[in-house]
Amino acid sequence: MPTDPVNAGVTFDAKTARSVERGYMTPEIAHQRARTLAALDLQTGDHVLDVGCGPGLLVREMAEVIGLSGQATGIDTSTAMLDLARERCGDLPQVTLRDDDLRALPTEANHFDAIACTQVLLFIEDLAAALNELARVLKPGGRIAVLETDWRGCILNTDNNALTRRMFDTWDDVAVSPNLPVRLHPLLRDAGFSDIEVEGIPIINTTYEKGNFSSGFVRGLARKCKDRGVISDTEAKTWLADFEQKDRDDAYFFCVNRYLFTAVKA
Ligand SMILES: C[S@@+](CC[C@H](N)C(=O)[O-])C[C@H]1O[C@@H](n2cnc3c(N)ncnc32)[C@H](O)[C@@H]1O
């Protein structure tokens, strides 16, 4: 297995890892983590797994809830992400971070009380096999929380509709499943999960300010499209300048919906 997965269109190298970390520290994603944590209903002493833990923000919060008598394991295939997670969680002895692939976990069956998997499955080809593997390592009665985004339903106020469509087509190619939420319920059911519930978590920004989720996202998308030769430097500047103008006109609008699925292993 490669250390850094090139999952269809994204490599989680040091630069991307830092950029993901910045995006995930915004208040919008902190709120999403709080919802995920609440849905998992963790207890002191639990053994928990964060699948594709990235920069370690969620695994740290999970570890704080389960306390020193618990065990929080974060796994990821990106060295750069694991480095960030180690920096973040170094002071918590109940955290273990491992370079493991979610598709083949070196863990015995029925081990974990709870599993979180946020923004990872969109990069995975064989979702049935991946969810079967997560079901295998979860204890009967254990809870799983899976969070994914409907990137095809992202809406924003722009004067440049054709350009925006071209850019979102490129974004579509970055993930294997850019609108995975529509398929997650049957996938979870077929992997043996029951009591499946779903909650929508919209990310809405009405200002284009540095430090909010969408400003980082649109800038990152412009950079990615430029790097891939999909748009020119002028087009990137025009696209972003329009958002600055919208902000000045109090007309900026961005929304994308995340979906938090929770389920129990029967
Ligand atoms: C968009 S980030 C999400 C990080 C984290 N779950 C969060 O929500 O903050 C996706 C992460 O999934 C990891 N990943 C992708 N494919 C993986 C696989 N097959 N096994 C484990 N981790 C994987 C990537 O390296 C990356 O850190």
Which SSEs are present, and which pair or pack?
Blueprint (H helix, E strand, L loop, with lengths): L13 H11 L2 H14 L6 E5 L5 H10 L4 E5 L3 H11 L5 E4 L13 E7 L8 H11 E12 L5 E2 L4 H14 L6 H10 L2 E13 L7 H15 L5 H16 L5 E12 L1
Parallel strand pairs: 1-2, 1-4, 2-3, 4-5
Antiparallel strand pairs: 5-8, 6-8, 7-8
Helix pairs in contact: 1-4, 1-8, 8-9
Bound molecules: S-adenosylmethionine (SAM).
- The total of helices stands at 9
Tell me, rounded to a whole number, the average pLDDT. Answer: 94
Beta-strand portion reads 15-25%
The secondary-structure element order is HHEHEHEEHEEHHEHHE
Q: Terminal Cα separation, in Å?
A: 31 Å
Radius of gyration: 19 Å
Which range best describes the helical content: under 10%, 10-25%, 25-40%, 40-55%, 55-70% or over 70%?
40-55%
Give a short account of the largest sheet.
Answer: 8 strands, mixed
> Which CATH C-level class is it?
Alpha Beta
CATH superfamily: Vaccinia Virus protein VP39
Number of distinct beta strands: 8
Query: Which ranges are low-confidence, i.e. pLDDT below 50, for 5 or more consecutive residues?
Result: 1-8
Query: Ligands bound here?
Result: S-adenosylmethionine
Shape verdict: globular
Structural classification: alpha/beta
Count of all domains: 1
CATH topology: Rossmann fold
CATH-defined architecture:
3-Layer(aba) Sandwich
Provide a descriptive summary of the structure in words.
This protein has one domain: Rossmann fold (3-Layer(aba) Sandwich). The chain has helices spanning 14-24, 27-40, 57-66, 79-89, 127-137, 161-174, 181-190, 213-227, 233-248; strands at residues 47-51, 71-75, 95-98, 112-118, 138-149, 155-156, 193-205, 254-265. Strands 1, 2, 3, 4, 5, 6, 7 and 8 form an eight-stranded mixed beta sheet that branches. Helix 1 crosses helix 4 and helix 1 (14-24) packs antiparallel against helix 8 (213-227). The chain starts with 13 loop residues before the first helix and ends with a strand. It is an alpha/beta fold and 266 residues long. It is globular. Mean pLDDT is 94; it is low at 1-8. The chain contains nine helices and eight strands. The longest helix has 16 residues, at 233-248. Helix 4 (79-89) links the parallel strand 2 and strand 3.
